[in-house]
Structures are given as C-alpha cells and as structure tokens.
Amino acid sequence: MTTSTTSPPQAELSGWGRYPRSRAAVIRPERLSELKLVTGGVIARGLGRSYGDASINGGHSVILTERLNRFISFDAVTGVLRSEAGATMGDVLQTFVPKGWFLPITPGTKFVTLGGAVASDIHGKNHHRDGSFGRFVNELRMLLADGCVVDCSPIKMPELFWATIGGMGLTGVILEVTFRLIPIQTAYIHAKSYYVANLGEALKVLSDPAKDDQYSVCWLNTTCTGALLGQGLVFTGHHAHRNELPSTISNVLVPHRIRPGKQIPLALPLLSGPAVTLFNRWYAWQNNKKDAYISQYDQFFYPLDAIANWNLLYGSRGLLQYQVVVPGVSAESALGGVLKRLQKERLVSFLT
Fold this sequence. Notes:
- There is one protein chain.
- This protein is α+β, with helices and mostly antiparallel strands.
- 19% of the residues lie in helices and 22% in strands.
- It has eight helices and 15 strands.
- The strands form four sheets. Strands 5-6-10-8-9 form a five-stranded antiparallel β-sheet, covered by helices on one side.
- A hairpin with a 5-residue loop joins β8 and β9.
- It starts with 9 loop residues before the first strand and ends in an 8-residue tail after the last helix.
C-alpha cells in the first residue's frame, strides 16, 4: 500500500521499549482512500506503544495510521462507536466522556490507537470481570493482502474476525473498528488501596470477593526480600456514581488530561539500582491510603502518561517488558520464583 509512485522514505523504528530497532519504508496516508496495494511485506503501525518488535517490520514497509482517525458514527442509545482505526483512546475519552460514555477496556496509557487495541487484544484492570478488548468489538473493516476491503464480525467471516483480534496486524490492515462503549455517571473513580506485606497476602486480597471491584491491580515492590518478598499495594475501584462524589465537584463528566505530559529531554538510565529502591519506597508511602478516595480517571488508569516519553528513563539501550501468565494454583511459587530470579540478576523494576 502506498500513496505515491515515488519510493517512501526510510526511518528507524522501534516499539515503546526502544529495543530492538530497525529501518523500514514509512508510508503515512491522510485518508483511507489513499491506500493502494504495494509489493513486499507491509504492516500497519499505530502509535508505537507496543513492546518488542510488534510494529517495526524491519526491511519492509510500515503504514503510519495516526492520521486515519475520524469518528464515523455513534449510537447515543447503545454506545456503539464506529471509527477509523487510527483514532486513539485519548480521542475517544475527550469526545465521549462528556456525553457519559467510557472505554470498555483500557490499558495503562490512553495513547493507543483503536486498531492497535484490536491487534493486541489489549487487557486492562477489569480483565478478571470483562475480559479483553475483543469482547466489545462488533465489526471490523479490513484491507487484505490482495487489495480487497472486507467487513468481518463474529457472524460475518468469523474466522478472519477472530484471527484479527489479537492477531498483531498479520491478517491485514484494520481500517475501521466498531465497538461498544460503557455508560458512566461521572468522570471519576471511587478507589481503595490495600497494603500487602508479601506476595501471598497480595494474592489473597486479589481473590477476596469482599474486596473485589470493577477494576483491580496490584503493584509490587521488587526490591523487597525474604518475608517481605512481593510487598506492595492492591488498588481497586469503579466508576463513581454521582452520590459518591463530594459536593465540591460540580462538573462530573469533564474529561481529564488528554495531551501528553512533560517531555524528558535526554535518555538517562534513572530507573535502575538505588534509584528504583528509593522510588519504590516513595511510591508505597504516597499511595498507601487507609480510606476510600475519589480519583480522576486519568490518575487511576494512566499515571505514566504524566511523562510523555517515560521510556527514556531507562536510558539509551531501552527496556524489555515481560508479561507472565501462570495457573492460579501455582501462582505464589511461580511468581515468587520470578521475583527472586530478577533480584539475583539485579534486575529490579519500578513497574511490576
């Protein structure tokens, strides 16, 4: 797919981890109609927030989709939104939070395209209740390798649809996404935090029905050892109802911080060694709250978005992210083993 008869420019690309890196031909169409078939391998790229080599396609072609970001239609009764795939979750929040609607699933950043959300089948803090993003997708419009544009859904061309949900963009270019938003009464989160002394206690709190909520996540201090291995905080919350807000909040559906946060000018390896130990201690102290509290949704879901390029805090070599899934019956021993191995290798992390 290309928008010109001339060769597209080359650029060095990476995912959010800034490792690995490779050069690719970069194509940036303004409209869906500009996409045409080209020879050779091609893959669509959203905002580059995936980890690893998911959207760099070294030696081939990459389509930048961020300008293909128009909303096409919205049903104010059902909450069904049809949008070009380059629109971001931040775009959706800014437009629809004031109307009383929210994303059904959101990751830890709002700077993710809808096409990327489908390709990665993203999960969020409500995964244990609602599953991943694909469960809320009604239909996809796609450009296939033979140049055909097709619509697929769980009913129409279901094999293509489900292969594309979590298919990492390998089944074709996602042009449009039709999915369901969820209704909210306010733009705030009614949240709680629970201190956990170790990994066993963390798992116990997470599995306690009395403490469960719409959203839950556990942060672990990877620098703690011995009896305190897995020490951390469990955060839970739900979209606050109007009667849960203090009287000082009058505009209950105002969207919060949408633009990227502050920029870091240089790649400095600040999140390593003693710095992580100090940061983790500060984070645990700052967020250990005994009583329920009201949080802006931006602070609850997207704290890292306050720094637009926080990936530079890992230095020029970049970072690796590991996501580990283990059976519940062996969770404590398996995750404990992971934490011990990371400490042995002196690979402490602030984001665990």
